[in-house]
Structures are given as C-alpha cells and as structure tokens.
C-alpha cells in the first residue's frame, strides 16, 4: 500500500482524497493531511475519520507516508519541501512555479540526492509533457508557452497593473518574457509555465506569453515546440476549477493519476 500525505486541504487535496483509493485500485491511500494551525477540527470533520489531520509537519511524517504531495502553494514548498526530503520521503510538488527560485531549486535537489529520494512533478493542467521531455534529448531549438484565461483568473496579480481587467473588450497580452519571471511574478497562475520550462529548455530559455481574454470561458494552454526529433503544437482548453478559477480542473486529476501510478501494476 502506498501511503500518501497531503500538505494543504484545498480543491486539489479534496479531489485526491475522493478519488485516489479507487484510481489506484485500492493500492494507495491518503493517511494524513497537514492543515493550517487552528483548522484541524474543521478539516478533520470534512475529511472524515479514515485520515489523520495534523497541524505540524513532524506529525505528518510520523504517519510514515511513502510520499508527501504539496498542495498548498509556493510558500509551502519553501517551508516544508526540504524537510520532507531530508526525512527520507519522496516529495510531489504541485506548485511547480516555486522552483523558479534558483536557490530553493538547488536546496531541494541537494536534499533529494543526499536522502536518495525523488522530487516528482505532475503534468498538471497540460498534456504533451512526455513528448517535450523526450524531445529534449534530441535537441530543442525553441519552446513557447501561451496562457489565455478569463480576466477573473488574473485578479489579485500584477496583471491588474498592466491592464484594466474590468474594461477589457478583447484578448490582451499583458506579459511576454521568460518562464522564470512569469513563475515568480504570477505564482498562482504560472505553474504550467514552470512545468514546460523544467521539461524543456529551462526557465530562462522558455518563452512565455500571458493573456487575459474577456471572451474566454476556459483556461487555454498552448505549447509550441521545435526540436531535432520534430516539431509539435498542443492546445488544451481546460475548464477552470470550480473552487479556484486560477487553476484548471484537470490539475487535481493529474495529481491523482501521478499518485495512483506509484502503486499501479500498469502505469501510464
């Protein structure tokens, strides 16, 4: 049985909790959830009696999870990631944009090497990550990522200072630059940019374009790749998560799939 610990109890964690046991054919289960201080009773009531809800990382690790999945944002990666790895536990990072911080990235990799553990990165809201990562070995010449979301998805981000989100009449590009800058400036919106960067040319060579579109009902992700193994383009129109419009609904199911695969007889 693969024992899973979760950091955070938002929409992604709730989806994993609901679907993981069945998705893994009974071979993986959530054994613990780390919640914010003061939230233990409420989260325990919501999560049910079959999972332990704790308020400190040490208590989560005491449950002996095979892997801990971070589902709580960039701050959680910085606060807990290194300790999880140093404890001898694999770490799944959902807030992949946090790895645009070069110092944090280096610390986590060093901790993983020293403990002999892995850092796992789910595809999240996009497809074709396997093709991109494979093409990297042939030689990549260009990787471009474009994100188009409705204005509501960009509220409380630097996009508000680049354009008037309430008055937009047409699709408006408000950012064009590197994946590193995008991930650091838009931590709740640009995890896909970070995923594309890590699978391909890296944070500083991956081109990113972010767009607010008042006519968009979905979160659209577009990846263009040129490589020595061939060129390809993927466009994915994902429905926003009903709990968080900044996140695509597919993300939570990608995390569930990644965790289920750890226990699967046949993994794909």
CATH 2nd-level architecture of the largest domain:
3-Layer(aba) Sandwich
How would a crystallographer describe the biggest sheet? 6 strands, parallel
Number of strands: 11
How much strand content do the residues show? 25-35%
**CATH topology label of the largest domain:** Rossmann fold
Report the order of strands and helices.
Answer: EHEHEHEHEHEHEHEHHEEEH
Envelope shape: globular
**Radius of gyration (Å):** 18 Å
Counted up, domains total 2
Spell out the CATH superfamily of the largest domain.
NAD(P)-binding Rossmann-like Domain
Helix amount: 25-40%
Strand order of the largest sheet: 3-2-1-4-5-6
The number of helical elements comes to 10
Q: Which whole number gives the mean pLDDT? A: 95
CATH C-level category of the largest domain: Alpha Beta
What report would you give on this structure?
- With about 270 residues, this protein is an alpha/beta fold.
- The chain has 2 domains: about 1-125 and about 250-260, NAD(P)-binding Rossmann-like Domain (Rossmann fold); about 130-240, Dihydrodipicolinate Reductase, domain 2 (2-Layer Sandwich), CATH 3.30.360.
- About 35% of the residues lie in helices and about 25% in strands.
- The chain contains 10 helices and 11 strands.
- It has helices at about 10-25, 40-45, 55-60, 75-85, 100-115, 130-135, 160, 180-185, 190-200, 250-260, and strands spanning about 1-5, 30-35, 50-55, 65-70, 90-95, 120, 140-150, 170-180, 205-210, 220-225, 230-240.
- The strands form 2 sheets. Strands 3-2-1-4-5-6 form a 6-stranded parallel beta sheet, sandwiched between helices. A 5-stranded mixed beta sheet has the order 8-9-7-10-11.
- Helix 1 (about 10-25) links the parallel strand 1 and strand 2 (about 30-35).
- The chain is globular, with a radius of gyration of 18 Å.
């Amino acid at each position: 049985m693969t024992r899973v610990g979760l950091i955070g109890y938002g929409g992604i964690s709730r989806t994993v909790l609901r679907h993981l046991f069945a998705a893994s054919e009974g071979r993986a289960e959530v054994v613990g959830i780390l919640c914010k201080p003061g939230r233990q009773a409420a989260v325990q009531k919501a999560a049910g009696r079959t999972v332990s809800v704790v308020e400190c990382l040490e208590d989560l690790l005491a449950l002996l999870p095979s892997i801990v999945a971070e589902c709580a944002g960039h701050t959680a990666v910085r606060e807990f990631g290194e300790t999880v790895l140093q404890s001898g536990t694999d770490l799944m990072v959902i807030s992949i944009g946090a790895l645009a911080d070069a110092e944090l990235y280096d610390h986590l990799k060093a901790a993983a090497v020293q403990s002999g553990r892995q850092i796992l990165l789910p595809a999240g809201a996009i497809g074709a990550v396997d093709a991109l990562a494979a093409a990297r070995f042939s030689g990549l010449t260009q990787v471009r990522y474009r994100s188009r979301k409705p204005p509501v998805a960009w509220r409380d981000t630097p996009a508000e200072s680049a354009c008037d989100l309430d008055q937009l009449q047409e699709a408006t590009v408000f950012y064009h630059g590197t994946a590193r800058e995008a991930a650091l400036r838009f931590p709740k919106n640009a995890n896909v940019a970070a995923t594309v960067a890590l699978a391909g040319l890296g944070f500083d060579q991956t081109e990113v374009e972010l767009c607010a579109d008042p006519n968009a009902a979905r979160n659209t992700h577009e990846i263009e790749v040129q490589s020595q193994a061939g060129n390809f383009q993927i466009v994915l129109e994902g429905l926003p998560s009903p709990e968080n419009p900044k996140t695509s609904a597919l993300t939570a199911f990608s995390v569930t799939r990644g965790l289920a695969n750890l226990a699967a007889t046949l993994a794909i």
